[in-house]
Structure formats: C-alpha cells, structure tokens
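Each field is listed here:
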Amino acid sequence: MMNKFYNFPTGSSFEAKTDLIKRLCEIIKEIILNEYFRDSKFFIKRAGEFLSSQMTNDSIIEGILYFALGIERILKGLLYDINPIYILKNQEFKNSAPSLYKTRMLENIEQNSEISTKPDGDVLTFKLSLSRVKVFSESAHKNSSLLYTLSNYRDVIVHRPLSELKVEKLKRLLQKELFPVIEHFSKEIGLKTEEFFEENTNHVKKIAFEIFEAEEFEHKINVKIQHHMDIWSTNKENRDQVESAKKTTASLLKQKSNDFMYDIISCPVCENDALVRIEPDYDIDDGHGYLSGVFVDSLTCHFCGLVLDSYEELDYFDINGILEQEP
C-alpha cells in the first residue's frame, strides 16, 4: 500500500523502510495535531529547561509561568478536539462561525444578519478551560486541584506583585509535578512525553523521582516516629519497664572494644537517654595508623524501642551532628 504513495529506493532494507514509515507517521501526526497542542510543546519544553535541583528565584518563577502556559494550551487543545466552539467565550453561531470557520464561508457573506461583522474571538481563561475540560479529561479531573493552584500562581506572576509568591512552594510544585502531569496528559493526547521535554526528558523525570522518594521516606519516618511515641506513652506509665530500660542502657554503655563503643544522646522521639553505637575510622600516614574520626553506626532507645540503623535515618535526625555537639 505504501509503495503506491512512495517509491522506496531499490534495495532498501526492511529496517530503512520501517524507519521511513515511522517518520512519515510522525509528520502526519504533527500536521493533524491542533495548534494548541503544538504550542504547548514549546512552553513545556521551556519549563523543563529551567528545572534543576538548585534553582534561583528567577528560574523558579519563569519555570512555573511556562508550566502554566503549557498546561493552559493543553486544556484548550483538549476542548478544541472535542468541539472547537468550546474554547470560545461567546459561543453563539453569529460569533463562532466567523471566528472559527471564516475560510469556509462564502465570499461577501458578511452582510448576512446571522453573521457578526465584528466577531469576538476571545477564548476561555485557564480556570474556565479547566472547569469544562475536566468533564471529559481524566488527567484534568485527577489533577484539578493542582492545576487550579498552578493557575493561581500564573495569575499572581502576571497581575500581582511577585512578593506575594511563596517561592519554595512554587519550586516544590515545579520539581515534583512537571513530569508526572505532562506524562498523564501526553498519554491522553496520544503523544510521547519525550515530544514535550525532548533532550531534557530524563533530567526532568529524575528530579521528580527524587522528590517522590524523599517524600515517601519522610512519610515512613513520620509513621515510625508516631509508632514509638505511642510505645513510650504506654511504657512511661510502667515503672518496672522504665527501670529496666535504665539498667539496660547503663549496662550497654559500659561495653566497648577496638571496633566500637557506646555513647548517650537524647532520643529524638521520647527524649530519654538513647544509646548510639560508635565505630572508629582509622587512616594511615607514613606507615603509621591513627584515629581519623568516629561515626555513628546505629541508635537504640530502650525506653520507646526506637532503632535507627540506616544512614538515611541517621542523617534525617542528624545524629552525627548532635553527637559532635555533645560535651
């Protein structure tokens, strides 16, 4: 069938033909893609270019603005695909016909009373586009609160003093939500996420994933804290339990070897004495070994049962830092 429209070079390999067909399909898809979707790619790509782990206030504000402009185009593009009239503020026939289909109208038809001589081509705002499209779009419906917030940020940037912005919140939203939101919409539209971010796709995805992992870890830590607070709330009413914890702590504190020793710091959950197991770090200089530092291996509280034994948990509570400050 394809050979009827395109003559492949003699001897072309199957792979070459397949590659050419794919490229032709991409060209066709770009042609039939409505203008709002095409414009959205530009804005989303720019938002991705501003994204990094360490961002200046300027780059955060510009990134959020481009994100908002890109999403607004996507929302209008979705409405346009359903019915182009839906993007207009004034949807009356006398206005929508010349606004959207002027090229299909007969010549000199402007004198017709059914056609406005001064059609209003003004389109919906971000918020009104969102209100309408979330009736049809799963992505818009699922992310409606986020997109409403993004619209508010866009309005402040365009119309209000920038001092009203809480830049850290903008940064969090941009880093965390740019990739997953565009990923949702791109699937719905029938595009690849890479078509929006191009060469920055992996970079934008990585930053979002790092935020997700950090938030998931923090949630687990908060659950753990609450769990051990509940244990201490029960244990502190039991005098025998408290005395046992004191004795165990005192006994273990006396244990030490060449490989480890114990020290005491305040438990980050119940504020009782917690044991930190410390391991020495040795280095060699001119053939002589010397103690270069000590590092916390784990923390155990026998009052509330808290155990911290991963570097993520120890760093979260800054146990090494607290120990260094102890007299």
Q: What stands out?
A: The first strand starts at residue 261 and ends at 266. The chain has 14 helices and four strands. Residues 1-6 have pLDDT under 50 and may be disordered.
